[in-house]
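Example 3.2
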Amino acid sequence: MSRRKEPAIPSDLLDQLLAGGDAAAALQQGGLLDSLKKALAERALNAEMDHHLGHEDVTVS
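Structure, written as tokens:
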């Protein structure tokens, strides 16, 4: 019997992200997946810029 691996993203968070929407639509162009990728890239770029400019209070959450 194999054990299930803990998901990288908790199920309750996924439920919140998909609430009121169609799971298949999340994978379409302009859907939830694209929005998540954009938000992640923006957060990373902002953190990089803060680090580059020497800002002390860089928070990544």
